[in-house]
Amino acid sequence: MAMDMRAIVLDHPVEPEELRVRRVPVPEPDPGWVRIKVEAFGLNRSEYHLRAGLATGATFPIIPGIEAVGTVDAAPNGEFAPGQQVAAMMGGMGRQYDGGYAEYVVVPASSIVPISTDLDWATLGALPEMLQTAHGSLFTGLAIEPGQSVLIRGGTSSVGVAAAAIAKEHGLTVFSTTRNPDRVDVLKQHGVDHPIVDDGNVAAKVREIQPEGVQAALELVGTNTLPDTLKAVAVHGTACFTGMLSDNWSIPDFYPMDYLPNGVRLTAYSGESNDLPAEAFQRYCDLVAAGKLSIRIDRVFTMDEIGEAHRIMADGHAVGKLVVRV
């Protein structure tokens, strides 16, 4: 396939406005790898870290993008039929090898989830990494059960909105935070039972509503808010550290006896595509299509608008997912 394609290539860390589309050769798949004709991809914090020079284990030049949706274009081993709708995510995409910010991407067959849906490509493009992270955090990290309560710290992020929707669909009472009072109504629209304006003291506000605390808490902001999030959790409850919206990644001088409230468990989640089984992803797509799972897309961009999209992500101005339609 001696052709070229449009892609966003990072030669080194840059400012959002320096991101450009260029022409590069269409990649060829080796056995065990699959080439996808990309229709859409979502933007993720991981790519912000890569672009800003904050990522570890990244090599340049690289095409960013840890997820993409589209159709199978070539599969040397025949794992997928040409034209099959698929989502690809994680597994080294956009870090160890070129990712989804392109018209074609080549990924290991193990990173692909097949799907069948009538959702438009932009909506589908919002879902893979967002649902994988939300699903894995709730079910692997927190082991949620119907009837429990969950606090989502960082609730207007794309994962936060998705986690609230999934938790509600699973029968939980949802507390969710935003630092912007103007976004409280957005949280309510997405099924949040108790929206909380985050002034740094969320635990006290949670316990005003539910004195014993929540059974589960999902930390999407970072280690700077984690101590307060832990204080909102009931004895024998669990907090899961998943996100770093604040870019605070580590805990200096971690002293467990002082840091962890009595009887509160702390776990973490950083998943792969196989943490979202194909049947679960298909079910979520069906629920979104039926209007039963509330997913928020903040805005859809073209590839040529990638700089603007990254600026919005860097400045934290999005509520929900940013998507590029290829």
Can you tell me about this structure?
Helices cover 26% and strands 26% of the residues. By secondary structure, the protein is of the alpha/beta class. The chain is globular. It starts with a strand and ends with a strand.
- What is the CATH topology assignment of the largest domain? Quinone Oxidoreductase, Chain A, domain 1
Give the CATH class of the largest domain.
Answer: Alpha Beta
Structural class call reads alpha/beta
The coarse overall form would be globular
Q: Helicity level, as a percent range?
A: 25-40%
The amount of beta strand, in percent, is 25-35%
The unreliable regions are: none
Following the backbone from N to C, one meets helices and strands in this order, namely: EEEHEEEEHHEHEHEHEHEHEHEHE
| CATH architecture label name of the largest domain | Alpha-Beta Complex
Keywords:
Quinone Oxidoreductase, Chain A, domain 1; seven-stranded mixed beta sheet; 2 domains; 326 residues; alpha/beta; Rossmann fold; globular; six-stranded parallel beta sheet
